[in-house]
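Subgroup meeting minutes
Present: P.N., E.W., G.H.
Scribe: E.W.

1. P.N. recapped why we're keeping a running log of single-chain structure predictions: easier to compare across weeks, and new members can see raw inputs and outputs side by side.
2. G.H. added today's entry (264 aa).
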Amino acid sequence: MGVRYVEYYHPIGMTGKDPNDSKFGELAMTTVQADVDQYDWKAIGTELDAYGCAVLPRLLKVAECADLSGLYAHDGYFRSHIHMARHGFGKGEYKYFNYPLPSPIGELRTALYAHVAPIANGWNARMKIDMRYPETHADYLKACHKAGQQRPTPLLLQYVAGDFNCLHQDLYGELAFPLQATVLLSAPGRDFTGGEFVLTEQRPRMQSRAEVVMLQQGDAVVFAVANRPVQGSKGTYRVNLRHGVSRLRSGQRHTLGIIFHDAK
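Output recorded in log:
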């Protein structure tokens, strides 16, 4: 473990429908791909270039968020359970999904990757990083697995009052995709208070900049994992980013984390 760190499905036990059923997976893929494709990805790329993060409003519906949150109680979906306080990561807990991923989560990961890979390639070109990412997520995962990174990284996180997540970077091996996404599954003001997503940017010879992203239930935020390019007066330079979650004041908060590289 390295911590520098959709109407398309219902979990088993809620409706009796298996999210890994092949026919159901085809329906999920069609719906997820259409939902992701509807966004203005040129505008999202511009937002990422400017701030290192961008919001996808209402990526998931309320019922979909509830279904995903409901998975947390079913340990059979997960490969590990992490209590943050034991490792000095903050307070709260999270669980990493195991392969095979529940179809909707795997399809969402695949659909998002198709749009963020060109942005990531553009960033690497500007930062003079040789790595280029393939068009499909399946091909990128082959590279991860060849490098010994074979453990899935999508996760569900759970916070209760007093919990928080320290600033960190989700890097799990030699290969690290430069963008990731988080989806808020709980409703601010109803399910919890506090618990804002925070992104910090360390700029050379300058004070750090903080970005607080106010999400609504079902919104996703796409953001830089570790570095992004910034255009300065003397050319492009890299800035270092970390993300975390501020202290939860009350209630309970669930999020879905979508990391595109796998872990060693």
